[in-house]
Amino acid sequence: MVINPVTIGPDATLADALKALSKASQKKLILVIDEAQHALTTDEGINALFSLKAARDSLNTDQGQYGMQLVATGSNRDKLATLVNGREQAFYGADMVQFPTLGKDYVQWLVARWLKK
Q1: Is 68 helix (H, G, I), strand (E, B) or coil?
Q2: CB 3.0-4.6 Å disulfide test: which of 3, 53, 68, 77 passes with 90?
Q3: To the nearest 10°, the Cα dihedral for 40, 46, 51, 57?
Q4: What are the b/e assignments for 80-106, b being 16+ CB within 10 Å?
Q5: Collapsing DSSP states into helix, strand and coil, what is residue 47?
Q6: pLDDT (tens digit, 9 = 90+) per residue, 94-114?
């Protein structure tokens, strides 16, 4: 899908920018954050998580918005769990879903695909 450029002002918040993108696309936004547990290692990362939560909450409660969903993935389940288990964390209480691990059949398919190149 091609979305025309979205214009926002210099004082726009992350929520403002994501609302403009949602409105322009007329779709629910789904943001995937890979290795999300690394955000916990700096104050900037923690602040970014709180900003994303505020943006998500704003999009999901404003009438006329299409909404937003965040998917946080990571290679360290215990550290990733900190994002939802700590009372002081932005996503405290959010659901944590175990994705299935990739099996031997996937690895064999991937190797065969690489060998064809």
Answers
A1: strand
A2: 53
A3: 60
A4: bebbeeeeebbbeeeeeeeeeeeeeee
A5: helix
A6: 988 887 788 899 889 888 988
